[in-house]
């Protein structure tokens, strides 16, 4: 599965900041491909931690079959033995449709400048055309691409 990574901040701060990958999805159910993608991205791009975020109310897909509580529990069980993985309830607990930009803004307010955030997206949900819809003015400054071959590369923001 092709995967794109979006660096959500590039503030030029020289001090160390945790590199936090954010992998959202319906996780209905979570499976080995989700976990292997997270592990590969963490290894290749030297992330300190990956946060799995089960979607609350998806804005682009049909409602998941399993409840948010069940999907959260499945993800927590799947991540239990992976020290660099944890699961967040941030979208499940927030009412209304889930938008990545809202989640990232909330994570930014929680972590402040201590973390550099990276959004990990499957190619099935990453649209190379201009952003439309909810908060379309919120663009990311850069991205990386991860493919099944286990390689990753940076993509300048003007090529997004």
Q: What features would you describe in this structure?
A:
With about 160 residues, this protein is of the alpha/beta class. It has a single domain, classed as 3-Layer(aba) Sandwich (Rossmann fold). About 25% of the residues lie in helices and about 25% in strands. The protein is built from 3 helices and 7 strands, in the order ββαβαβαβββ. It has helices at about 30-45, 70-80, 100-110; strands at about 5, 20-25, 50-55, 85, 115-120, 140-145, 150-155. It has a 7-stranded mixed sheet with strand order 4-3-2-5-1-6-7, with helices on both faces. Strand 2 (about 20-25), helix 1 and strand 3 (about 50-55) form a beta-alpha-beta unit. Mean pLDDT is about 75; it is low at about 1-15, about 135-145 and about 150-160.
**What is the string of helix and strand elements?**
EEHEHEHEEE
Assign the CATH superfamily: HUPs
Mean pLDDT: 77
Q: Tell me the Rg in angstroms.
A: 15 Å
Tell me the span between the first and last alpha carbons.
Answer: 19 Å
Count of extended strands: 7
Biggest sheet layout: 7 strands, mixed
Count of distinct structural domains: 1
User: Within the CATH hierarchy, at the fold level, what is the topology?
Assistant: Rossmann fold
Q: Quickly count the helices.
A: 3
